[in-house]
Amino acid sequence: MYLQGKHIAFLCQYAAPYEGNFLLSLKKMELVLGERYAAQCAYVFPMQASQQSWFDGFNSAHTVFLTSDSMEMADGEIQRMFAKFCPDIVYTHFDGYDMPVARVVQNMRRSVKQVWHMHNTLGFHPNPIKSLYQIFCFFRHYGLPFLRGGKFHS
After folding, report:
1. Are residues 70 and 130 in the same domain?
2. What is the CA angle 58-60-63, rounded to 5?
């Protein structure tokens, strides 16, 4: 994937009281992407993250957008954030932003790559009825990219 000069948005449904290794990993990835590819990164968190002790330092050192804590309102908020930041790649960590991002990206007039970080594998049950139900659930969660044969890696 060509990364030179890309805008990359990390959408993290994360508001734990500790920064954790996951944010340290994203900050390292941002550093490498900036140094090697002159990529620009932005982060999206739920509003509740702003109440955590790690947030102020993080917010002052990075481009950060906040959504309301309700994922039902996230579509419009993410759409407005994308209009400001214009991401080429969106990376969701924790599944709360997966559905709103998929809906927003499907309605955009330009191509945006999506990366979903999963902590488990997507597999299909051998029973055909259960497999059809899984396909329905995956489609409901991930939208059209799932049906178009999106690449899923575990």
Report:
1. no
2. 80
